[in-house]
Design a protein that fits this description.
Structural class: mainly beta
Strand order of the largest sheet: 1-4-5
Largest sheet: 3 strands, antiparallel
Helix content: under 10%
Length: 70
């Protein structure tokens, strides 16, 4: 059986990524009040086939300011 390793790079400060099964992962992040703007995270999946195949995707996360927060 092929397995897929999933990794994440260029995560915003405080963000985590964990591979949760053979082909899924979980990205978790709660931005702080000072973390507004655009942040890019890059996710990479690599299988153990022959030949090894890799796919990489970058995702832009836009964090807006909070109005009326107390």
């Amino acid at each position: 059986d092929q397995t897929v390793a999933i990794t994440a790079t260029t995560l915003p400060s405080g963000a985590t990524f964990t591979q949760t099964s053979a082909n899924t992962g979980r990205f978790t992040w709660t931005p702080t009040a000072n973390q507004t703007g655009n942040f890019t995270a890059t996710f990479t999946a690599t299988d153990n086939g022959s030949p090894v195949m890799t796919d990489r995707e970058s995702v832009v996360i836009n964090v807006g300011g909070v109005t009326g927060a107390q």
